[in-house]
Design a protein that fits this description.
- Helices cover about 10% and strands about 45% of the residues.
- It is built from 2 helices and 26 strands.
- By secondary structure, it is mainly β.
- It has a 6-stranded mixed sheet with strand order 14-13-18-17-16-15, with no helix packed on it.
Length: about 350
């Protein structure tokens, strides 16, 4: 033989191609398996799945952030495959067909608030300055609130400052800082140079809301009115409130012995009586809880390795904490289907260039 024929060369090339494809498939499957079994901590992460799989979209979905990406899981199978979008957020919340997304901090401490529709198209973009901390959307999707740290990065000490704003997506009215609202205590106007406000939660009428007000070392629950531009102090030692779907209770974090340095106890406040109920979660919860229904709240707790998990606990003080979604934060109430249809995050417009401050 003087050499390999052309036909033989083609056959060898075809066999080599098939072997390489098989090797790539095995490698991919092993990598996916390692991703499930080798995640940080004792709790495995569920595999991610591409947006667009109709099987994953069926049934109510719980919206979370997974590795900083807007994602959703089946509320009936939260440990199952995740529907992952390409939209990156530091904090997010979804309700009434609206998603509020606080994007990661950019140059000069710039954060962008993105108001997204169910297909993750940007309805409004607001440029802010500070570090993302909290965001909330009213049940019908109309009102959006956000909190950023503009000094310090933790509520555990006194050396921090916040800026909290509200956007009415229907009218377009934007309040850049709730500190311009009139604060009332026992019916009288309260003035202080050290007021900080954070952690808004909306009532069903899209006017009334609750939040935390800090001043002179005391942290209080306030009831606000968007139309009246007022904040009325109700009671002390209530942080990061979350209003129940029936509007009668607030889930919140309560500083142990009124000292944030000792950690926070997840609790529920009955608004008509101001009676407090400590929940069965005894670990420190530094989060704004979300109500999954009238009897269950969800919240994130960070592990020692820095990874967060979403847990749930009954809202009446009974039962025990239950792991809901591993490796996730920013839980929202269940929605009818997964967010987005493959919208690319890099297609988001540049924003309106507004940094509201008052």
């Amino acid at each position: 033989m003087t050499g390999i024929t052309q036909r033989a060369r083609i056959l060898i090339l075809a066999v080599a191609t098939l072997l390489l494809a098989a090797l790539a498939t095995v490698t991919l499957l092993r990598a996916r398996q390692a991703g499930v079994q080798g995640s940080p901590g004792d709790v495995p992460r569920a595999p991610a799945a591409a947006v667009g799989d109709d099987g994953l979209r069926a049934g109510p979905r719980l919206t979370v952030l997974s590795d900083g990406l807007l994602s959703s899981v089946s509320i009936t199978d939260p440990s199952g495959p995740r529907d992952v979008t390409s939209q990156r957020c530091d904090r997010a919340y979804t309700a009434g067909g609206t998603t509020a997304c606080l994007t990661p901090v950019g140059a000069l401490g710039t954060t962008r608030l993105l108001v997204l529709d169910p297909d993750l198209r940007t309805r409004r973009s607001v440029t802010l300055t500070g570090f993302p901390n909290r965001t909330r959307v009213s049940a019908d999707g109309r009102m959006v609130a956000w909190t950023l740290f503009v000094g310090g990065h933790s509520y555990s000490g006194g050396g921090f400052s916040t800026r909290t704003g509200i956007l009415d997506t229907r009218s377009g009215e934007l309040t850049g800082s709730l500190e311009v609202f009139t604060v009332l205590r026992d019916g009288r106007r309260y003035r202080a140079p050290d007021v900080n406000i954070w952690g808004v939660t909306f009532a069903a009428d899209d006017d009334r809301f609750y939040a935390t007000l800090s001043s002179s070392g005391t942290r209080s629950l306030v009831e606000g009115s968007v139309s009246a531009r007022t904040l009325r102090i109700l009671t002390e030692n209530v942080e990061c409130p979350s209003l129940s779907p029936d509007g009668t209770r607030v889930a919140f974090k309560q500083a142990v012995d009124a000292d944030p340095a000792k950690g926070w106890r997840l609790s529920v406040l009955d608004l008509p009586t101001l009676h407090r109920t400590g929940l069965a979660e005894t670990r420190s919860v530094d989060d704004q809880a979300a109500w999954l229904d009238d009897g269950t709240v969800a919240y994130a707790i960070q592990r020692s390795d820095g990874v967060d998990d979403v847990w749930t606990v009954p809202a009446d003080g009974t039962g025990a904490p239950r792991l809901l979604v591993s490796g996730a934060v920013s839980p929202s109430p269940p929605v009818a289907s997964a967010l987005g249809h493959g919208t690319r995050a890099d297609a988001v417009p540049e924003g309106d260039g507004v940094d509201p401050s008052g």
